[in-house]
Design brief:
By secondary structure, the chain is of the alpha+beta class. It has 27 helices and 11 strands. Among the domains are: 40 residues; 262 residues, Neutral endopeptidase , domain2 (Neutral endopeptidase, domain 2, Orthogonal Bundle). A 4-stranded mixed sheet has the order 2-3-5-4. It has a 3-stranded mixed sheet with strand order 6-8-7, covered by helices on one side. A two-stranded antiparallel sheet has the order 1-11.
Length: 723
């Protein structure tokens, strides 16, 4: 072969090798891009998804078996690694979101009043500024409290050896204290009429300010409480030589009233009684009810109350015993009774007093709740203004932090979940057709509130809500007194007015959700429409597991042990009356509920070695179990229609598993012992651990998704189901 031909052949070979190399590189790049595209479709790699995946992984105990303890699996590392702040008695997702919201609100309220601020927002800013002015509180708060005690509330006998009880009648003193929101030994207030929810009625019940009966037998708590009583009186310059003895008698009297209260388990199933004012006076003659009621309504114009006025009486057995105790103590020791009345006013007023009173209260709270320091003043003041002016503050929050796209997405989700509850109703073999018909009609008429009310941006309406509030930006206590007087008089002024059933019941800056049986209304304020409950930029299996389960929970409240007693128009029907469901359906329902009561009664918190109260928590447990079922079924249908969603990066869990994992992580929490005992004794909700375990272990689809063996702890053979 000639040299020239050899070189040509060599060049050709080089060319073919180079071409082959280029083709190989090109194919490799194309394959890599294809794989990348597949991975992008398989996994969500957005910032929101990466953040969600990281949070989920941080909270989980991946070594735990979800089939044996799903709470430990979803929240084990949260419980292990999170620290409860010194100023809190617990830590959970709700608390974290509420604190974040409150600090955001504090930033907005702390800004100077702007020319464009409507009057209600100006008032909110003034109230916040007065609360933040601790120097004024330190300088004059104590003297102002003393002045109120002496000149407006007729004095606190415990502060002096001598006291003039003839200066005012006891009944007039009780009326005056009620105008300062002191409920004393009974609670008479204006309430929605359960038989006509468009009207108002007077309601009489036992007061809610006592401790749980068990705490009065706790020597640590009672000792700390009496020390707090004593220290408060001493700081108010008590000159009483018998101070310690009177503190002891005051405490014993409080305990006597507390111990005759009707237990919440009994109150849950007792039907109220309607009496006229005349009949009430005959039934409980030891107290002048007519004069007391007229004394309250004399504070407002154009409202007349007659002897035939209907009063709804809740706790007649307590009232009978309380009136006997009242008669005896007033006859034998009027001084002790007056001391207790004024104590109910002063004991929660440390927010408006100097540092030494706050320190005294803190010593008691250390024992009662386990906290060791107070929250920041900005957090306290932000929450105070939010609680007081929820719609004005809500306007500020919505304008600055709420994404309106969440409202439309939540609306679609609610409709999907309502459809599933309707399907659940039709599937129940324990309901007859008549009862199903009533339940479906009620479901269809549920009034849904999402985000914020339309009147949020109606300046005239907003200003009218807070018309009676007049504030300065420097006298917090005076502002507070104005608030409690206005709030006490407002329902008296509106007593004869018709209620608008479709009005919002709560403000938008709330990290919570609500169901109102008398309004047949579910409400999901703007504050809860945020991660981990809802985030428009993450897959919907997280949203349905989060806010979806909450939506289902609130819908189910309309059909829990108490919600089912109200019809589609919010009218109450007792089981003894011709009501909404047939008697056979009611009997079947109660059997279904009994299973769930027994299930939760058998749960024990290892942290404090306490069993749960399945009877008291039955309504919330029914709602938890119904909520997760509706949300999961709705998500599965949504996914079937819209296609499978990408999974989260770094996690090897399916979409269905992540639905349950996010549901569980919504309830991750950590309690101090005192707070956990209080939740078990006094709470209508089970602790988060059992909200997760209870509802998932009753749901067959959970066992299928995690491939749990039948009979494992989180997939028991016996399951309880109401809806």
């Amino acid at each position: 072969m000639s040299q020239r031909r050899y070189q040509k052949a060599l060049y050709l070979a080089y060319f073919l090798v180079a071409l082959l190399l280029l083709v190989t590189i090109g194919l490799s790049i194309m394959l890599s891009l294809a794989k990348s595209t597949i991975n992008e479709k398989r996994f969500c790699t957005s910032k929101s998804c990466i953040k969600a995946a990281n949070t989920i992984l941080e909270n989980m105990d991946t070594e735990a078996d979800p089939c044996e303890n799903f709470y430990q699996f979803t929240c084990g590392n949260f419980v292990k690694s999170k620290r409860i702040p010194d100023e809190q008695s617990r830590l959970d997702v709700f608390d974290h979101l509420r604190d974040t919201l409150a600090y955001n609100i504090a930033d907005l309220l702390g800004e100077p009043i702007q020319p464009g601020d409507i009057e209600s927002i100006q008032k909110a800013k003034d109230l916040f500024k007065s609360c933040m002015d601790e120097e004024s509180t330190q300088r004059s708060g104590d003297a102002r409290i003393l002045s109120i005690l002496k000149t407006e509330l007729y004095g606190w006998p415990i502060l002096t050896d001598t006291f003039n009880f003839n200066a005012v009648s006891l009944l007039d003193k009780l009326v005056k204290l009620r105008l300062y929101d002191v409920r004393g030994f009974f609670d008479l207030h204006v309430s929605t009429n359960p038989k006509d929810p468009s009207s108002l009625i007077l309601r009489l019940r036992q007061p809610q300010w006592f401790f749980n009966k068990e705490l009065y037998a706790n020597s640590s708590v009672t000792s700390a409480y009496k020390s707090y009583m004593l220290r408060t009186a001493q700081l108010l310059n008590a000159s009483n030589k018998n101070l310690r003895q009177e503190i002891e008698r005051m405490f014993e009297l409080e305990k006597d009233f507390a111990m005759i209260q009707i237990e919440e388990n009994s109150r849950r199933s007792v039907v109220y009684k309607n009496m006229t004012l005349r009949d009430l006076q005959k039934r409980l003659p030891e107290f002048d009810w007519r004069k007391y009621v007229l004394g309250l309504f004399n504070q407002v114009e154009n409202v007349t109350v007659f002897d035939n006025e209907t009063i709804l009486v809740d706790d007649i057995e307590y009232l009978e015993k309380a009136l006997k105790l009242y008669t005896s103590v007033v006859r034998n020791s009027r001084r002790d009774f007056d001391n207790l009345l004024l104590w109910t006013f002063i004991k929660d007023k440390t927010l408006f007093m100097s540092k030494k009173f706050k320190e005294s209260r803190m010593e008691f709270d250390k024992v009662l709740t386990g906290i060791v320091s107070t929250p920041s003043r900005s957090l306290i003041c932000s929450n105070f203004v939010l609680d007081t002016m929820e719609y004005a503050v809500g306007r500020m929050y919505v304008s600055n932090y709420f994404n309106n796209e969440s409202k439309a997405a939540a609306t679609e989700m609610i409709l999907n979940i309502q459809k599933e509850f309707k399907n659940l109703i039709t599937e129940q073999d324990w309901m007859d057709n008549e009862s199903k018909k009533h339940a479906i009609e009620k479901l269809a008429l549920i009034d849904t509130k999402i985000g914020y009310p339309d009147f949020t941006y109606n300046e005239t309406y907003m200003d009218e809500i807070y018309y009676d509030y007049t504030f300065t930006n420097f006298d917090f206590l005076e502002n507070f007194i104005n608030i409690i007087k206005a709030d006490t008089l407002q329902p008296l002024k509106e007593f004869r007015k018709k209620r608008e059933l479709n009005l919002w019941q709560r403000g938008p800056a709330m990290v919570n959700a609500f169901y109102s049986p008398s309004n047949n209304q579910i409400c999901f304020p703007a504050g809860i429409l945020q991660s981990p409950f809802y985030d428009a930029s993450v897959p919907n299996y997280l949203n349905y597991g989060g806010i979806g389960s909450v939506i289902g929970h609130e819908i189910t409240h309309g059909f829990d042990d108490r919600g089912r007693l109200y019809d589609k128009n919010g009218i109450f029907h007792s089981d003894e009356s011709e009501g909404i469901w047939t008697q056979k359906t009611i009997e079947n329902y109660k059997k279904k509920v009994e299973c769930m009561i027994d299930q939760y009664n058998n749960y024990t918190s290892n942290q404090v070695n306490r069993s749960l109260n399945g009877f008291r928590t039955q309504g919330e447990n029914i709602a938890d179990n119904g909520g997760i079922k509706q949300a999961y079924r709705a998500y599965k249908k949504w996914a079937a229609k819209n296609g499978a969603e990408p999974m989260l990066p770094g996690l090897s869990y399916s979409q269905e598993q992540l639905f349950f994992i996010n549901f569980g992580q919504v309830w991750c929490g950590k309690f101090r012992n005192q707070s956990l005992v209080s939740r078990i004794l006094n709470g209508d909700h089970s602790p988060g651990e059992f909200r997760v375990i209870g509802s998932t272990s009753n749901f067959a689809e959970f066992g299928d998704v995690f491939k749990c063996k039948q009979g494992s702890k989180n997939n028991p053979v016996k399951k309880c189901s109401v809806w």
